[in-house]
């Protein structure tokens, strides 16, 4: 470790939708984070505009309305920028980087325009500048593109990268809900930008497309170079028409390497488009995002998850924060194995699952009652039962609620001894459904 295990000082700039969740996790998960980093993460201050407002989960003494002073403090090692926009975020981040502090940001508007300048400042001082949360909320997509696929050649990155517009379009498509009402709900749920025009006019998605195209194609693409169309012109009539063609409407961001008259170019574009109902993107609803990456050797990869909202975005911020902090503690190369939690592995009998039991039965009265009794006797509750066929083909299919492996195997053993059960033909676990 380069700095032994002295605490890592963290400054959080902005305590809105995302900042509030970041502060909560830093506080609630302090012990886990310390074990993962190799040193405690200590919150030195939280910058907001209005320090008089009560903020749950933070010591009021930590609040400041002077983010520049906070960033420049000697006891701050890492700066988490969650204010958004260009001013004052750009200057704050530059000051932090130039002062030798690593920076984590969720600010796509800034990264889409100033990545070059900010990256150079980070490289000059050999500190980190991480921005996983700037694209697609909780979904890891920046790190896969910059690290996991570093040895491949990406040809296309495309998908749904704005939660607010996807939430609006999903609601309009499903319930015909009014645009204004759904947009207000997206704001209330913490999905929308401070100025939601950025979402509905496609600026936010264009910033994300610029970031994705830049890192995927090892080039510099800015938001203003991305072709952009928003969703404000989409009406219920468009959804009706789309349905007639078995399609829905999604705001897509598409970044491709293309050949134009023998010259390799990048196409980066954002627009609402008809998507066939059987296409994987058609089932991405609400604030969920999905990004498909195509690379020459890996082929097609899909990333799916929550693309907006305080807690999901905070997850990506914390991931970056832990990595940046570890780089400080271990000089960029931490231990490869993390075993601090030391949890034991549960036996299968300690993990109740649901079961599907299919059996050949004698076609006699009362068999259903007898079979159900065997399950009940061992405390297994039946979710559904079906009798199929008749005579020699009579079968009984039982689907249970969660039960232990032992209770299930004891029941099957008992069923096999019954005269009315000729054979238990299959026992499968049922996953993908809740009780
Ligand atoms: N919300 C989301 O789902 C996602 C957001 N992001 C990005 O994360 C960033 C933060 O978003 P979000 O949390 O939603 O934004 P909010 O608007 O909810 O919060 C912004 C915070 O910044 C503070 N702030 C604003 N200006 C200043 C200033 N000059 N000095 C000090 N503090 C200031 C505000 O203070 P005050 O509370 O006093 O008003 C507020 O706490 C943005 O870059 C956004 O694009 C990225 C992915 C998803
Ligand atoms: N406003 C953005 C927030 C996350 O990036 C969105 O709706 O996707």
TrEMBL record:
The keyword Amino-acid biosynthesis applies. Gene3D superfamilies: 3.30.70.260, Dihydrodipicolinate Reductase, domain 2, NAD(P)-binding Rossmann-like Domain. SUPFAM superfamilies: ACT-like, Glyceraldehyde-3-phosphate dehydrogenase-like, C-terminal domain, NAD(P)-binding Rossmann-fold domains. Its cofactor is a metal cation. It holds the Pfam family NAD_binding_3. Its EC number is 1.1.1.3. It catalyses: L-homoserine + NAD(+) = L-aspartate 4-semialdehyde + NADH + H(+); L-homoserine + NADP(+) = L-aspartate 4-semialdehyde + NADPH + H(+). It is an enzyme of class 1 (oxidoreductase). CDD domains: ACT_HSDH-Hom. Keywords: Amino-acid biosynthesis, Methionine biosynthesis, NADP, Oxidoreductase, Sodium, Threonine biosynthesis. It comes from the Bacteria. GO terms for molecular function: homoserine dehydrogenase activity. Residues 356-429 form the ACT domain. Pathway: Amino-acid biosynthesis; L-threonine biosynthesis; L-threonine from L-aspartate: step 3/5; Amino-acid biosynthesis; L-methionine biosynthesis via de novo pathway; L-homoserine from L-aspartate: step 3/3. Catalyzes the conversion of L-aspartate-beta-semialdehyde (L-Asa) to L-homoserine (L-Hse), the third step in the biosynthesis of threonine and methionine from aspartate. Belongs to the homoserine dehydrogenase family. PANTHER family: HOMOSERINE DEHYDROGENASE. NCBIfam families: PRK06349.1. This is Homoserine dehydrogenase.
């Amino acid at each position: 470790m380069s700095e032994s295990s002295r605490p890592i000082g963290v400054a959080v700039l902005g305590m809105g939708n995302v900042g509030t969740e970041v502060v909560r996790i830093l506080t609630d998960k302090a012990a886990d984070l310390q074990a993962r980093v190799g040193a405690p993460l200590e919150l030195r201050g939280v910058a907001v505009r209005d320090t008089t407002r009560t903020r749950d989960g933070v010591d009021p003494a930590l609040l400041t309305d002077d983010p520049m002073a906070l960033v420049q403090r000697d006891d701050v090692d890492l700066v988490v920028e969650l204010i958004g926009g260009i001013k004052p975020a750009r200057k704050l981040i530059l000051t932090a980087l130039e002062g030798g502090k690593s920076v984590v940001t969720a600010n796509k508007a800034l990264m889409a325009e100033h990545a070059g300048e900010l990256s150079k400042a980070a490289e000059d001082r050999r500190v980190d500048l991480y921005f996983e949360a700037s694209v697609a909320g909780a979904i890891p997509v920046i790190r896969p593109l910059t690290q996991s696929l570093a040895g491949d050649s990406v040809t296309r990155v495309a998908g749904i990268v704005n939660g607010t517009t996807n939430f609006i379009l999903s609601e309009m498509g499903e319930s015909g809900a009014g645009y204004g009402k759904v947009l207000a709900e997206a704001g209330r749920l913490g999905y929308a930008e401070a100025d939601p025009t950025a979402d509905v006019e496609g600026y936010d998605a264009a910033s994300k497309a610029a970031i994705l195209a830049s890192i995927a194609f090892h080039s510099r693409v800015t938001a203003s170079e991305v072709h952009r169309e928003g969703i404000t012109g989409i009406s219920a009539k468009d959804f009706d028409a789309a349905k007639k063609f078995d399609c829905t409407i999604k705001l897509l961001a598409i970044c491709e390497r293309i050949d134009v008259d023998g010259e390799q170019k990048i196409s980066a574009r954002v627009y609402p488009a008809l998507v066939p109902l059987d296409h994987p993107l058609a089932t991405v609803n609400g604030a969920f995002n999905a990004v498909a990456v195509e690379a020459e050797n890996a082929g097609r990869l899909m990333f799916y998850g929550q693309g907006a909202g305080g807690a999901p975005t905070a997850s990506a911020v914390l991931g970056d924060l832990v990595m940046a902090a570890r780089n400080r503690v271990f000089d960029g190369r931490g231990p490869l194995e993390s075993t601090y939690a030391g949890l034991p592995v549960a036996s299968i009998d300690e993990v109740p699952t649901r079961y599907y039991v299919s059996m050949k039965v004698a076609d006699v009265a009362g068999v259903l009652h007898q079979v159900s009794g065997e399950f009940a006797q061992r405390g297994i509750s039946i979710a559904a039962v079906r009798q199929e066929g008749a005579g020699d083909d009579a079968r009984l299919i039982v689907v249970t609620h969660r039960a232990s492996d032992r209770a299930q195997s004891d029941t099957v053993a008992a069923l096999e001894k019954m005269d009315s059960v000729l054979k238990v033909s299959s026992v499968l676990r049922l996953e993908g459904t809740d009780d």
